[in-house]
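Continuing the series of single-chain predictions for the mutant panel. This is the parent chain; the variants come on the following pages.
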Amino acid sequence: MTEQVTGTAIGTTEMVTLADISAAAERIADTVVRTPLLPFSPAEPDRPLWIKPESLQPTAAFKLRGAYNKIKQSLPEARARGIVAHSSGNHARSVAWLARRLGLRAVIVMPDTAPPNKVDVVRELGAEVVLVPPALRDTHGFVLAEQYGYLPVPPFDDPEVVAGQGTVGLEIMEDLPDADVVLVPVSGGGLAAGVATAVKALRPETRVIGVEPELAADAEQSLREGRRLAWEPEQTYRTVADGLRTHGLGAVPWDGIRRHLDEIVTVSEEQILDAVRRLALDARLVSEPSGAVTFAAYLAGDTTGKHVAILSGGSVNPPLLAGILAGPARQEALHEQ
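Parent structure:
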């Protein structure tokens, strides 16, 4: 079952530009790691691959970029009011990490189906965790903000967050200016919109391709039909890629995606799990399933030229990773974890 999404982002529908992304890059440089492009071997000769490992961030995911760009511009207000965020894990960890570093009170709304390792690390960082049913994940934080006066730090539907995520694309084009294809995961759309905006502004001929799980492909359907659609949680929560289960694209990311993203492709659960395994064994990189979808798309694709796959995060649940590394015979059982 799908529903059409209406309304706008909280506070603004401002379009994000390359200038916004460049300013964000300068703003966050004192804290965010400028991750390298790592050549993958063995890659096919006519389609060499570089991996952008955002798993190497201090919080193990790209989410640190957007969260810091947002918080740093509102720091006095954040100190006075405290902050609230909602997330399945990676944005939560980034906000909690920044709150501890900057001396802020943080309240994080997470779905009660989030992997235990992601919930535990947020609590260990000192943030208050509020667990809610998946259907309330994207709304309850704003309820708390209204009730207690917290400053919201959205995971994707905010121009400052999108600009921060776009610094990933800026770095890719600085390091590989003749990239032919950039593969980026899509969930709420902040990373995809930011990366596509930066890449297309710097090299319009580069193809920017979003990647989603087949079982949570509401963004692919939205782009194909030209309207924002959301799949219900009981659909999207079927995928092992827990970071890509967001209930539809945000309004701000949607603008960047429909303008700049060339297409969105989907990958199966088996392809995602195999990509996690191959990243660990062949590239020596630990990836969560959500971060591995781009590598899965590269392995399944037929595009030629220089490719970049954004490995968006590495916060994989240890038992899940152990099962994946044990081989395909265990993969059916993994969906029950």
